[in-house]
Amino acid sequence: MKKKQTKALLYSLVAVMAIFLAACGKQSQSKSNESASFKNEPTTSQTSDVKSTVLKGDGFWYLAGSINGKSNSGMEAIAFDSDTGKATMYNVDKYYMSYGNAQKANALNKEGTVNYSFKQNDNNQTVIKLSGKMSGVPFDETLTVKTKTHGKNKDKTLNISGYKAVRDVDADKTNIVFVRASAPKTK
To answer: What is the pLDDT of residues 98-121, one digit of tens each?
Structure first.
């Protein structure tokens, strides 16, 4: 009888050890997968890449809560002029495929024109600084560019691409998308 109890106890211990070791192995494997995927995620794009992307084409970009976000007061749009180093800020009612399309729709409500610059912060992130006067009041805003983002705006079926960013106005930081619109791809 004691022999059977000892064998049963031994088998139980072996089973418990096997379950314990299997759980430990799974946990360390999942942790290594997590850290590997986290390490591969970019924290930002290179400043030169962001700058050339923003200034390419008509330089017309949107600051919005999300790709399909709605706002009763509209959203901000910025037209960057690579020749002058100035950015004209507008309020628009929705995404337009281009500056020209927004202009044709008479949808550009001008807020003001400011200077812009691109730099890199201590965390190796691209920062776009907008500064000047808006309606005679000093204005300073920064956009800290994070990761790339893209999607389709459901209302207009436009392709939206750009960056997730943090907008800082008077030390009030907000997560936004900093994006541009383009025509949907035809099949």
So the answer is: 999 999 999 999 999 999 999 999
